[in-house]
Amino acid sequence: MERPLTVLRVSLHHPTPGSATFAYVPPQVEHDASPLLVGRGPDAHLRLQLPRLSRQHLSLEPYLEKGGARLAFSLKVLSRKGSVWVNGMTLRFLEQVPLGAINRVAFSGVQMVVRIEGGTSLEAFVCCFHLSPSPLIYRLRAEETDERESVPQEQPPPGSGQGAPDHLGFLHSPLQPSPGGAPEIPLQREPLDGALS
């Protein structure tokens, strides 16, 4: 009997309207248990058309935790050009961090949210991609992910009580069909408790 695959639901946003940034993003990719590469190079599994992005900018790396029975994932920075912002932490070349169930990532103007839905297969996983016309992440204090680019920052409404310097949240978004036709789960505003350990 075949074991169910872990699913990574990856939402992507770039502030440039009508850009070709996501021209090569497929609706879904089934991948073996090797790292999934993100970058602008032809060998990237998630290929983004941004001139300041490295050919291999970052990778999502599956691994088996000690005593674990399911794939876990980490994010590793492969670019020397800039930093990658992950769940409140800034990572530089060859640094990596384990991912949780919901992860907020920003690099070179791209906002990415990765949700992990665990399966029992250890041989492969599936990535489902959703392109969002609306920003996915806001930060009260600008923590640039690339020193050479600026990303417009959205501020929370006045009086929202969310004044912590490193607070992140999702913006509400209506149900939107994914490229495969199934509705995407709406992103909800959630408080984040400072830096993750």
UniProtKB/TrEMBL annotation:
GO biological process: auditory behavior; cochlea morphogenesis; craniofacial suture morphogenesis; genitalia morphogenesis; hard palate morphogenesis; hematopoietic progenitor cell differentiation; learned vocalization behavior; lipopolysaccharide-mediated signaling pathway
Alphabetized Gene3D superfamilies for the sequence: 2.60.200.20
Region of interest called Disordered, as start-end residue ranges on this chain: 144-197
Record InterPro entries: FHA_dom (IPR000253), SMAD_FHA_dom_sf (IPR008984), TIFA (IPR033621)
Superkingdom assignment: Eukaryota
Segments forming domain FHA: 36-91
Coiled-coil portions: none
Example GO molecular function: deubiquitinase activator activity
Name assigned to this protein: TIFA inhibitor
Source organism of the structure: Capra hircus (Goat)
Chain's gene name: TIFAB
